Records
---
Amino acid sequence: MERKLIPVRTVVAIGIGAALVFVLMRFVAIPSGVPNTNLNVASAILTVFAAIFGPLAGFLIGFIGHTLTDLTWGGVWWSWVIADAVYGLLIGFFVKVYKIEEGGFGLIQGIIFNIIQILSNGIAWVAIAPTLDILIYQEPSDKVYLQGLVAGGLNSAVVLVLGTILAFGYTRTKVKAGSLKVE
């Protein structure tokens, strides 16, 4: 029986993606005004990597990148690490729909990409993170749901602008299937 291994390209993407997420979350975070909640451009990187390399890569990039960030701040906040990992997983499930790697990311795919990322941000930050904050850390619900709404809204906005630009830019570097002609 043949075992399927993770392609080397995906493993490299996980390493690069996690490193980028860590650096951007740690050093390019803009405070939102809500405690422990920042505007992070890292969410755009996580989203695009997950949309190109799939759910496993998205999950691991979110998990590793966020864990490393939290470790450098003194302690891992597992509820938010899990939310980032689940967000990457959800985005990655629709890799075939986006057609980024095939060079087919156009207007329709951009709209679908943003609908999926907004819904995924809602699931991760408005449902999972605050609920786990309450269950794991006994945090007050009004505080954590406000943080979740702000985090989800900011992440959605960052991905809408920066993530969409990155996805369009990356897909333009790819040759569409069937576009080459024999002369």
---
Amino acid sequence: MLKAKVVGKVWSTKKISGIPTGAFLEVQVEPAGTRLVAFDVLGTGIGEFVLVATGSVASAWFEGAAPPIDALIIGSIDESSK
């Protein structure tokens, strides 16, 4: 699981039918600073800190056939001590 900050939205003009309702967001992983695209079903906004599951754990969260998603926002962080 990764801690990350939402830094942007990803837009597309086409949608794959196997992907459920949600949004793709660009997140910056802390403290490394690397960025990745994560699928969001929580309605997370830019500037929020989130927890991201990756790999087969992310796609296994969905019922039925696993969609082609390998990073999923699974929680919002309200407070964090450094």
---
Amino acid sequence: MGTNSAQDLRQSATAMMWAGVLAITIGFIAIALPAIASVSIAVLIGILVIVLAVVWLFAAVGSGATTAWKVTGVVLSVLLLIGGLWILFNPIDATIGLTAVIAVVVIVMGVVRVVAAIGDHDADGRWLIALGGVLAIIIGVLIAADFPSSAAWAIGLLVGIQFLFDGIGLVLLSAYAKGTLRR
């Protein structure tokens, strides 16, 4: 391994470590303040939907498509814009709606995992897939059982946990990369 490659890897590992520390910090904040994190995520989704509306509009108008497709693109852009603005101006209601969707999606994903694990008799570790599915079902049911109150904690808590685990993974991967360089 050349000097530049080792230095590049060292810099990447350091950047990865700092990204991990930042993710862990954001995760702890989201877990500690799940209601604020939930609403913040809804606002971010609203902003992203508005950006998508603008991009879709430029793509529709600037394309070489037929007039019918252009009109369809413009109509979809307007609907996306209205939806994004509604989310921005009603973040609590949007959080409640997103929480309902998350509860359903998590339950369905859990059921699919359990069915896949049961159906795949030859897979090594299929019990882990089944266990993950059962845990997903339990989480989805807990969110649904506390709905709509769960909107105050579910999204922020789940995203916080995800950031925490991703951050830990990045820090560990960084440490592994740095350890490999030392050898």
---
Amino acid sequence: MNKDIRWKQRFENFEKAFKLLAEIKNYHINELKPLDQEGFIHRFEMTFELSWKVAKDYLDYSGHIIIQVSPRQVIKEAFSVGIIKNGKAFIEMIEARNLMSHTYDFERFAEILKKIKDNFLPAIQDFYDFFKEQL
């Protein structure tokens, strides 16, 4: 598959997921019902997965070689070339995603949802803006 097309196709899916996740701005975290909390956690997981994969595809397209492909390595490389502005937030996203995939605890959900709304969403917005400029 053409590398130019691959990152653009994946970005389209990322964009859809990001816009759904961004709806969290319209809610107060402490007022979300458990099902809504789970929904936003799932949206976050999907958006995060697509973000690092968009970055990987774009890095491939740009000629960057990542020897050991993992979310952490892709994020580090994307940060080093300016695709990701807030590397710390993206590393924290890895940790949050890993925690949520192994824990089913509504107290943790509330903590992660607050991080999503206050810290992660602005970092993802910057990431989104970078790629919108590339199109």
